[in-house]
Design a protein that fits this description.
This protein is an alpha+beta fold. The chain has 9 helices and 15 strands. A hairpin with a 5-residue loop joins strand 8 and strand 9.
Length: 375
C-alpha cells in the first residue's frame, strides 16, 4: 500500500465534527495509450516521445559524446537547451521533438508558456559503466515493477524498477523544482481568483500595528522523511506543503511553501525555514498537507479542486481542521502519476515547539517559535 493510500485511510479515521465537506471533481479526460492499450498520463506520453527521440538521436557518435559530457555531473540538464547548443544534425531533429513535448507537458500541468522548457535528461543506473546507454522515463505508476528503456535502434528493454541496472540510463523527466516553482504561482493565482486568500501580495496585508513591530512564525528547524515517494529512476523528490487555516477576515486561507532542499528519504535537513506566518491567521491553529510533485500534477486543476472544497467551510467561531477537505479535494485517477501525499500535520499552534510526527508517520518536523522583526 502506498503512503498516499495509507494517508487516505488514516485521515478518514480522524473526524471533522460538525463540518460538511463538498468535493467537486470533474470526469477524467480520456487518457493517451501506449502499445498494448495501457493508459498513460499526458506528461508520461510526452516524456516517452522525447525519450524515444533522444534514443534514436544517440546513434550519432558526436552527439552521443556531447550528451555524455553534459550529464556526467549527475544533475538534470535541460534537454531542449542541450539540443539547441549542438551543431549536429541529430540534435537539430531532436530539438523539434523536444519543443513539442515541452508544450504538451506545460499544458498537462496547467502552466503558462513562460515556464519554459521543463524536460531534462539525467544520468542514472551504472554511471561509471562504458556500456552503451539506454534512454528511459520513470513509470507513471509508482507501484510499477518494470521500466521501459530504449536503445539507439528503437528496441525496448525492460528494467527492474526496484534495482539499479548495470548499464548507464539516460532518464528523461520533468524538472521538478522548476515545475513546482511555476506551479505554486499558478496555485496561488487560481486560489485567489476563486476567492481563497493566499500569500500572494495584496492590499490585505497584516494590520499596521503588527507590521510595524513584527510577527510570530513557526519555523522548521529540522525535517526528515521516511519515504520521499521516489524510486532510483526518479531521483530527487520535489516537495511542497499546503498550509491552511482561517485568515483575519474569517475566511479560509491557503499558503504554499516549497522545500527544494528536501531531496532524500532517511536524511535529516536543517533548513530554518518559516512555515506559518501567524500574523495572517485569525486562530492560533493551522494545518499542513505535504505533497510531492510526481510529474503529472496539474496545478490549475489542483487549485480549483481545493478551492471548491474549502469555500464550503464557514467560520463557526471555533477552529475547524482543514486537512481532510484538502486531502479529499485533490483529484486522483488510476492512470495519472498525481502528486503523492507525503504526510499531514493537524492543528499546529503558534506555541508548537519541538518534534511533531505527521498523521501518516512518514514525516517528522521540529519547530521553534521565531519572531520576525519589522525593519
Amino acid at each position: 500500500m502506498t503512503v498516499r493510500k495509507q494517508l487516505r485511510t488514516a485521515l478518514c479515521g480522524l473526524a471533522l465534527a460538525g463540518v460538511v465537506v463538498t468535493t467537486t471533481q470533474g470526469p477524467a479526460a480520456a487518457a493517451p495509450t501506449v502499445d498494448g492499450g495501457a493508459k498513460v498520463s499526458p506528461v508520461a506520453a510526452a516524456e516517452d516521445a522525447a525519450a524515444r527521440s533522444l534514443a534514436r538521436s544517440l546513434g550519432d557518435a558526436g552527439w552521443r559524446a556531447e550528451v555524455g559530457r553534459a550529464v556526467a555531473g549527475g544533475t538534470g540538464t535541460g534537454l531542449k537547451a542541450l539540443a539547441d547548443k549542438s551543431r549536429t544534425r541529430a540534435a537539430a531533429s531532436l530539438a523539434v521533438d523536444v519543443a513539442a513535448a515541452d508544450r504538451s507537458v506545460r499544458a498537462a500541468k496547467g502552466l503558462a508558456a513562460d515556464a519554459g522548457g521543463l524536460l531534462t535528461v539525467t544520468l542514472a543506473g551504472a554511471v561509471g559503466s562504458r556500456r552503451a546507454p539506454l534512454v528511459a522515463v520513470a513509470p507513471s505508476d509508482d507501484e510499477s515493477a518494470a521500466i521501459t528503456a530504449y536503445d539507439t535502434n528503437g528496441r525496448a528493454h525492460t528494467l527492474d524498477a526496484a534495482r539499479t541496472p548495470d548499464v548507464p540510463v539516460y532518464v528523461v523527466g520533468v524538472d521538478g523544482e522548476k515545475a513546482v516553482e511555476a506551479g505554486v504561482k499558478v496555485l496561488e493565482h487560481e486560489l485567489a481568483a476563486a476567492g481563497v486568500a493566499t500569500a500572494a501580495p495584496s492590499a490585505a496585508a497584516a494590520p499596521a500595528a503588527t507590521a510595524a513591530t513584527g510577527y510570530w512564525t513557526s519555523r522548521i528547524t529540522s525535517v526528515r522523511l521516511n519515504d520521499d515517494m521516489e524510486t532510483w529512476i526518479k531521483g530527487d523528490a520535489e516537495i511542497f506543503s499546503i498550509v491552511s487555516g482561517f485568515g483575519l477576515d474569517g475566511k479560509v486561507r491557503v499558503d504554499t511553501v516549497t522545500h527544494p532542499y528536501l531531496n532524500d528519504a532517511g536524511t535529516t535537513y536543517y533548513p530554518n525555514q518559516i512555515l506559518v506566518n501567524w500574523s495572517q491567521y485569525k486562530y492560533n491553529l493551522a494545518d499542513v498537507v505535504m505533497m510531492e510533485d510526481d510529474g503529472d500534477t496539474n496545478y490549475s486543476a489542483l487549485a480549483k479542486a481545493i478551492a471548491a472544497a474549502l469555500l464550503t467551510i464557514a467560520d463557526l467561531g471555533a477552529y475547524i481542521p482543514l486537512v481532510d477537505p484538502v486531502v479529499d479535494a485533490i483529484p486522483s485517477s488510476f492512470w495519472t502519476d498525481d502528486a503523492d501525499f507525503v504526510d499531514a500535520w493537524y492543528t499546529l499552534a503558534r506555541e508548537t515547539t519541538g518534534t511533531r510526527d505527521g498523521a501518516g508517520a512518514n514525516g517528522r518536523f521540529t519547530f521553534d517559535r521565531y519572531w520576525v522583526s519589522a525593519l
